[in-house]
Write a structure and sequence with these properties.
By secondary structure, the chain is α+β, with helices and mostly antiparallel strands. It has helices spanning 4-9, 12-15, 25-32, 57-63, 77-87, 102-111, 124-129, 134-155, 164-177, 238-256, 264-277; strands spanning 19-22, 40-44, 48-52, 68-72, 92-95, 117-120, 181-182, 187-190, 210-216, 218-220, 223-224, 227-233, 289-291, 298-302, 315-318, 321-324, 328-331, 334-338, 343-345. Helix 8 packs across helix 9 (164-177). It starts with a helix and ends in a 6-residue tail after the last strand.
């Protein structure tokens, strides 16, 4: 089985590079299975080098795979980078310009020696990360299993008189008891607060007839879950019921379109068109979904403007929504795994 680094080097000829500089911690972690910090990874055709300082030297030597040589820099990472490039005849080094500052790039250009060129080659590692390996999928499943337990636990406390902040404390206690962490700061939004897509937790108390939106995620081995669930209390007005039913149907229609080679923009279009038919389209203002893995938002993007093509073993969310300002919001978010014939809704049993 190919390693992530070998998959990356297999792209070098197509991109006309001899090496690739990885500066983003999460991408280094993906390639090496080591939690990088303030370090660079220089991937060559035959050898790879982890450039770091004395603070991380011991951990790096102990934790990195054997195919990666740890190099301690003294003056600067850039100086060490170009020394390695000269020693190993790396004449054209690719880098992702999205993960380096303008000031950082200028410093590289100044120090870049004659005979070595820098080439902007974006999305190489992110492209690999889109296709999840069995171990990655298993970590996501484990995160979802704990996620299901957390929601079941939280449900016991969603009662009139409880505040959003009370619910957050209960959720934090449960997650802490499982010795895991959140993927992101949970969103717990009740009543009109649910109309805010990224609502902050407040002291608002839940009413006898109310709705509560819970958007949260669990992190296991660095891999995330991300789901949104709606809770309804008492008598719910017909408008909210209609919106909820429409959002759920829009989601099901979009999920039915998911299969290898499907265009992400067409999946988004399926949900959006249905909500338009129900005269709710103007209340759905964000993209339909996003990839989830080491980051809570990663490729592929499932949106109107996305050029992504769905591939087997991608994992992404499907989260249509309706937000009526000052009144309420409905968002139903699930995670899907693309299979050979279609997709598996990984969170289908979490209700």
């Amino acid at each position: 089985m190919k390693t992530p680094i070998s998959k990356l080097t297999a792209l070098f000829d197509r991109k006309d590079i001899d090496a690739f500089l990885v500066t983003q911690d999460v991408n280094i972690a993906y390639l090496t299975n080591f939690p990088a910090s303030e370090s660079w990874l220089l991937v060559g055709r035959r050898k790879s080098f982890y450039v770091t300082d004395f603070r991380y030297l011991h951990e790096a030597k102990k934790g990195l795979p054997k195919e990666v040589t740890v190099v301690r820099y003294s003056k600067s990472m850039a100086t060490a980078l170009f020394q390695l490039a000269r020693q190993h005849k790396m004449r054209r080094i690719g880098f992702d310009e999205r993960h380096i500052s303008l000031a950082g790039f200028k410093r590289l250009k100044i120090q870049c020696p004659q005979g070595v060129a820098l080439a902007a080659v974006n999305n190489l590692v992110e492209g690999l990360r889109q296709i999840k390996q069995p171990k990655e999928i298993q970590s996501v499943r484990q995160a979802l299993a704990i996620h299901a337990q957390a929601l079941k636990y939280l449900k016991n406390y969603i009662k009139p008189g409880a505040s959003e902040r009370d619910l957050l404390r209960h959720l934090e206690d449960f997650v802490k008891s499982k010795k895991v962490g959140f993927s992101f700061a949970p969103i717990i939004a009740s009543g009109p607060n649910s109309a805010l897509p990224h609502a902050k937790v407040t002291d608002r108390k839940i009413l006898k007839n109310d709705i509560v939106l819970v958007d949260m995620g669990i992190d296991v081995n660095g891999y995330k879950s991300d789901l949104t669930r709606m809770f309804f209390l008492g008598k719910i007005p017909p408008l909210i019921t209609r919106a909820n039913d429409s959002v759920k149907t829009a989601q099901l229609k979009a999920i039915a379109k998911i299969q290898p080679k499907a265009r992400a923009c067409k999946i988004d279009e399926e949900a959006r068109n249905y909500l338009e038919k129900k005269r709710l389209g103007k209340y759905f203002g964000h993209s339909l979904g996003h990839g989830v893995g080491l980051e809570i938002h990663e490729d592929p993007r499932i949106s109107q403007t996305s050029t992504a093509v769905v591939q087997e073993n991608m994992i992404f969310t499907v989260e249509p929504a309706v937000y009526i300002p000052g009144q309420f919001g409905i968002r139903i978010e699930d995670m899907v795994l693309v299979t050979k014939q279609g997709c598996e809704v990984l969170s289908d049993n979490i209700n």
